[in-house]
Amino acid sequence: MATGDLTSLAAAKDWLGITDDGRDALLTRLVAVASSAIRNALNRPTLAPADYDLVLDGTGTRSVVPRIHPITAVSSVVLDGVAIPAAAGPADAGFRWNDTAVFLTGGAVFSRGRGNLRIALTAGQPVPAEVEQACLLTVQAMLSSRDLDPNLSSEGTAGYSAGFRETAGAIPPAALRLLAPHRRVF
User: Fold this and answer.
1) 144, 54: one domain
2) Lowest CB count within 10 Å: 10, 157, 164, 174, which one?
3) Among the residues of the chain, which ranges form H helices?
4) pTM of the prediction?
5) Are residues 142 and 166 both part of a single domain?
6) Distance between CA atoms of 40 and 87, rounded to whole angstroms?
7) What is the rounded CA–CA span in Å between residue 149 and residue 35?
8) Residue 116 belongs to what H/E stretch?
9) pLDDT in tens, 95-135
10) Is the residue at 61 inside a domain?
11) What is the tally of structural domains in the chain?
12) Are residues 73 and 16 located together in one domain of the fold?
């Protein structure tokens, strides 16, 4: 599974009932595109755990909330070029963190400044089953809409007409319902 993918090629082939290797390149590309579309829809740049070296602006407050979460570890905090140690206890000076924010303790604040704060952290979580399923549904929709003309919304001849939904390449409604609880709102 490539970095950022929300499912594997093997899982996609299993879901689609494909046993040969003839469409592996296409399916790999569709998994990557579907994964990116889902991360964008969820407003989350990542879901799988990864290490980040963030450069942020100081807030003038005792906490910062990086865009990437859930935070699972913080290895270093450097403010205005000075390394801040991890706080040994709740009342000790240093940094602490939870799944969404990094805090300074002992009365300290992240001084205001542009790019004056560097935080090395690990964030992300194993891909939830419903997010992986949404990715599989999206890959399936993308594969099945491959032969549709994206400029055609309906067609007709004498005694026959057909209309098409404008979902080619989009996340299907069933997948959106699975994703709803995981959407980052702020």
Assistant:
1) no
2) 157
3) 9-16, 24-42, 129-144, 173-179
4) 0.60
5) yes
6) 35
7) 23
8) strand 113-123
9) 999 999 999 999 899 999 999 999 999 988 788 999 999 99
10) yes
11) 2
12) no
